């Protein structure tokens, strides 16, 4: 799986698809100690990382 990194603003809208911030069958998510959000996107065979906007 590939890791794609994105910034996540409070007004970010996520949708279905294969582009940045889009998902096909997200199956799991987790936060790390720095507040980053990791979403497993099974349908696109990747993990997307979202960093909080500071």
Summed up, what is this model?
This protein has strands at 2-8, 15-16, 22-23, 26-31, 37-41, 46-52. It is mainly beta and 54 residues long.
Describe the structure.
The chain has 54 residues and is mostly beta strands. It is 0% helix and 54% strand. It is built from no helices and six strands. The chain has a four-stranded mixed β-sheet, with no helix packed on it. The chain has a two-stranded parallel sheet with strand order 2-3. The termini are far apart. The model has no long low-confidence stretch (mean pLDDT 83).
Strand order within the widest beta sheet: 1-6-5-4
Task: Give me the secondary-structure category.
Answer: mainly beta
Q: What's the count of strands?
A: 6
Determine Rg (CA atoms, Å).
Answer: 10 Å
Which percent range describes the beta-strand content?
over 45%
Q: Into which percent range does the helicity of residues fall? A: under 10%
Taking pLDDT < 50 over at least 5 consecutive residues as the criterion, the unreliable ranges are none
Order of helices and strands: EEEEEE
Shape: globular
Largest sheet: 4 strands, mixed
Mean pLDDT: 83
Distance between the termini: 28 Å
Helix and strand arrangement:
Elements: E1 2-8, E2 15-16, E3 22-23, E4 26-31, E5 37-41, E6 46-52
Key features of this structure:
single chain; mainly beta; two-stranded parallel ribbon; 54 residues; 0% helix; four-stranded mixed beta sheet; globular
